[in-house]
Amino acid sequence: MRYIPFLILVLFAAPVLALTPMRPESLPFDVKLAGQAPAPAGSVAKVSAPVPSDALLELGVSETEQVIVNFFVSDDNGIIKTENSSAKEIIMSTGAKTKINQTMSKNSLPPGTYLANIFAQSTGQTARIVFTVK
């Protein structure tokens, strides 16, 4: 008799938890780069095909969200190369779309592989994607 409240809790909570989609740690919100959705690959998500240096970055966040994007030169697994570890940044004060050549330094990303840390300020969530600029 004393287990009935626990049993009721389990019976009602389990379906709710089962309906809640689990997002990979590397993609806490939707991200598209040049129309491609990155695929989770461990602690990062990877964009499969190379993108142009002016590729459109689209985020599944509110239009009023402040977003900070940092680009680092990396290897294919998202390990930052220490010999060139300075970041290029984009700060998006409004909107959920920007081109990756709109960095604060106004310099395009040269050809190579990059890790992008995409931080959504209001939720504190960071998406981590690896992509190659052709």
What is the compact description of this entry?
12% of the residues lie in helices and 34% in strands. The chain is mainly β and 134 residues long.
| Fraction of residues in helix | 10-25%
The succession of helices and strands, N to C, reads HEEEEEEEEE
Terminal-residue CA separation? 67 Å
Task: Count every helix, treating DSSP H or I runs of 4 or more residues as helices.
Answer: 1
**What is the radius of gyration computed over CA atoms, rounded to a whole number of angstroms?**
19 Å
The main pleated sheet reads as:
6 strands, mixed
Shape: globular
Task: List low-pLDDT spans.
Answer: none
Question: pLDDT average, as an integer?
Answer: 88
The order of strands across the largest sheet is 2-3-9-8-5-6
Supply the helix-strand structural class: mainly beta
Strand content: 25-35%
Tell me the number of strands.
9
Descriptive report:
With 134 residues, this protein is mostly beta strands. 12% of the residues lie in helices and 34% in strands. The chain has one helix at 4-19, and strands at 31-33, 39-41, 44-46, 56-59, 67-73, 88-92, 97-99, 112-120, 125-133. It has a 6-stranded mixed beta sheet, with no helix packed on it. Strand 8 and strand 9 form a beta hairpin. The radius of gyration is 19 Å and the shape is globular.
